[in-house]
Amino acid sequence: MEHELTWGLPVVLYLFLAGLGAGAVTVSASVLLRSGDYHGGSFFKLARYGALIGPIPVILGTCLIIFELGRWDRALNLFKVINLSPMSIGSWLLVLFICFSLLYALVFLPSFLPRFDWLTRRFAPIMHVLSWINVPLGIGVAVYTGILLGAMPSRPLWNSPILALLFLVSALSTGIAMVILAQTLFHRKDPTVHTERRIKTRREATLLRPGRRIYEIGYLLTASDALLISTELMVIFLFVMFAHLTVGNLKYAMAIILPGGEMAAMFWVWVVLVGLLIPVLMEMFYVIPKVVYRREFRIHEGSEILISIAVLVGGFMLRYIIVIAGQITGPLGV
Amino acid sequence: MNDNMAEMQNSDNTTDQKPPTKCCDNSKSAESGRCCKSAQAPLINDQEQQSPARRSFLSALIAAAATFTAAVSTAPLMRAGAAVSENSGANGTGKRKQYGMVIDVRRCIGCHACTVACKSEFDVPVGENRSWVEYIEKGVYPNVSRSFLPRLCNHCSEPPCVYVCPTNATYKRAQDGIVVVDQGLCIGCKYCLQACPYDARFLNPITGWADKCDFCAHRVGKGLDPSCVSTCVGGARIFGDLGDLDSEISKLIAKNRVTVLRREMGTFPNVYYIAADHTDELDARRPEVKTVKVITNRRHKERR
After folding, report:
1. Do the chains contact at B167 and A88, CB–CB below 8 Å?
2. Residue ranges of the domains in chain B?
3. Are B157 and B268 in contact (CB under 8 A)?
């Protein structure tokens, strides 16, 4: 089949990266607000990962789509007006988000140097205010990427109210995955963690081999990611099911990712299996002992890396398949 | 559609015998709507006066609050609604100008003269079309047919491209209802290309901005017909003001069975077709049609 794609890889990457960054900052700001830990604690360190990483993909994605335009300087025309077009509202939101997330990242910087300890303490109220601003802005940016696609009846696959929800949940989940990945790769190795515990059973001995970590923060991240991925599975089920149960344009468009469709294998393998089922099952494996048996949360670094990479790949493939499939399907008849 | 037009024509002919009781007439514009509301408001107040004073005061308060909230919350909607009524009103009342086109497919011979005229008028880049002619072939030998479907921008009364444009670069002109692209404001985001259900837009590879049929606004402004209309050898394209009931186009629409493309999209197109074959490749599923081949004569071979 011969198809002309109006929006290609730069737009797919932008949707993925904007969601990823917005998700990471939202998660970071929510952790900060929930814990009230504005100075040096483990929650603070976790929030710092999200805050410092978050703006990078958003800015990267924004650059990608600006240079995808005919002329990059024309993008300024977006800020001459504000109208009800999702792209207009979205670009204003995006600018606000980039500004506030950069500020938010900046206030975390002094905490790296013990010399500027007083500055970090001074910044605590600013952090608090910026977190309150960044949570709604981050959610706004993540949701708008879905609304952007959903605003057109001429693209039946996108024209679904649940698409924005799907993109929001996926953005938060990929944001958490990014934080997990960063934390696993960059955290300071602390040898005392293993030696200070008395090993009682053989099971514990196996669990405490190098690489396995016990930490409450990891539990928070992994458990919330499992919850988000489960929600995402449900949303995808509803998205596919209701499209399939209608008659007309949407049913015809959805056939492309249902068995027998052109992009079915890609969707079910990369998005559902790799991006959702495998990570959620692995996360359950680590989370359930804590939830059910009140054991300490232990997870292997390798698993953390694997889970987060799988979630990130799934998040990208979700955007890719939705964007491409939406463009190669159209309304029925003429 | 036909019935509506006929009815409106009738009412126009018999304006002198208009019943005085009718408050809101179609031919009147937004002011009459307001007069209607103000006429109803005292009526409600009269009813209120019969009930106890306190209750009436309370309910008036509630009503005022409700009206205020409704007014605030529906203000953008009302504006959109006003735009709708202005545009759709243009089809019948004769108050507003709305250029449109009737394509009488019975007169089309599929010669592509319109495509070529359009290409030379605007120097449309290779591989893109503002106007094009599709061929629809269907049936199984010996019961076969080929029909032609000239296509162009529908200059919709509810244009999805205008609604998604983030910079207001594409807009529907108030003076004649032509949907145009302001090349100075367009950023080339291609959102309008996605939003158009008729695939009438393209990104001009030379300028980098969105481009499409503009009913030859530069010719029409000088009283000429669009170039595709004046070049059409069979006289299949008829151009005119849909708001003017005496125009040839309005009469044609009133007297013929007309259709529009993708009516279910709710775009209220202003390009009407007489005797168009709406068969699509999907109709090949039907046992009586079996084979359908749509030749779009465009760079991307498929209909969207």
Report:
1. yes
2. 29-89, 99-295
3. yes
Stretch among A52-56, B17-21, B176-180, B220-224 having the lowest mean pLDDT: B17-21
State both tokens at B248. Answer: 């040839």
- The correct CATH number of B99-295 out of 3.60.10.10, 3.30.70.20, 3.40.50.720, 3.40.50.1400 is 3.30.70.20
How far is the first Cα of chain A from the last one, in angstroms, to the nearest whole number? 19
Which of B4, B156, B29 lies closest to B82 in space, CA to CA? B29
Query: Contact A81/B160, CB-based, under 8 Å?
Result: no
Q: Which residue of B has its CA nearest to A332?
A: B282
Contact A332 B280 (CB under 8 A): yes
pLDDT in tens, B97-149: 999 999 999 999 999 999 999 999 999 999 999 999 999 999 999 999 999 99
Residue B33: pLDDT over 50: no
Q: Which residues contact A198 (CB under 8 A, 6 or more apart)?
A: none
CB contact under 8 A, B188 and A74: yes
Cross-chain residue pair A69–B189, CB shorter than 8 Å? yes
Residue B196 sits at φ, ψ, to 5 deg, of -75, 120
CA of A3: which chain B residue's CA is closest? B300
pLDDT band at B301 (very low <50, low <70, confident <90, very high): confident
- A3 and B76 within 8 Å at the Cβ level: the answer is no
Listed in sequence order, the residues at least 6 apart from B293 whose beta carbon sits closer than 8 Å to its beta carbon are B135, B136, B137, B138, B281
Give the nearest chain A residue to B160 (CA atoms). A152
Ordered structural domains, chain A, with CATH: 9-186+211-328 (1.20.1630.10)
The per-residue pLDDT for range A125-143, each reduced to its tens digit, is 999 999 999 999 999 999 9
Nearest chain B residue to A81 by CA: give it: B167
Q: Which residue type does A188 have?
A: R
- Taking contacts as CB-CB distances below 8 angstroms, the residues of chain B near A334 are 149, 261-262, 278-280, 303
What is the value of pTM for the model shown?
Answer: 0.82
- Among candidate residues B214, B292, B278, the one with its CA nearest the CA of residue A331: B278
How far apart CA A136 and CA A109 sit, in angstroms, is: 23
Buried b (16+ CB within 10 A) or exposed e, A103-118: bbbebbebbeeeeeee
Surface of B (192-221) touching A: CB under 8 A: 193-197, 203, 207-209
Of A4, A155, A334, the CB nearest to B261: A334
- ipTM entry: 0.89
Residue B101 one-letter amino acid: M
Q: Which residue do the tokens 């969207």 mark? A: B304
CB contacts, 8 Å: B185 with chain A: 77, 80
